[in-house]
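Troubleshooting: if your tokenizer reports a length mismatch, compare your output against this known-good record of 182 residues.
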Amino acid sequence: MANFTLTPILAKEFDVSAYGSRLDRSMRNVGNSMREDLAKPTRTWEEKPNFKSKKSVSGTQLSITIYLVGDNDGDKHYLWLNDGVEGKEITAKPKSEAGESAKIPRLKMRKTFTAKTIPGTLTSQRGSPTGGGGDPREYNYPHTVQWTGIKARNFFDTVGNDWESKFVSEMDAAFGKIADEA
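Known-good structure output:
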């Protein structure tokens, strides 16, 4: 009867200085690519979100964190789309200008609406026009409306899922190049 023993081979902690700039460059490239993917749905936006990335090497773990800086309206709008917004009732408020109080306030709402972005994807499509112009027949003018909200697009989850295996492949390739150079 044959005997055998399985001995796990545990990775040693990373010594970042031993891998030089190759690892840093590879992680930076992956972070840039992830930021580009996150920005795909915003290609037609006037005010773009401001993404930053942070590389981390801790023990036996490499990670890249992508985050929004939060310093502009593009960041705020991106988070609304990413996380979703619960619907609510919207009621027109009366104008306070002199002579306007007798008028009944109304909202201006498009009869049809097509969102530019699609939940669970990074693609965008031609959406409904925005702004106040256009043919008045394309609008309803209610006093109150039940706004349906925004379905969560989950951009961060989508990119995270797409890049999980790519990140491992990219880091394997970087370590292969490091080993070849050694």
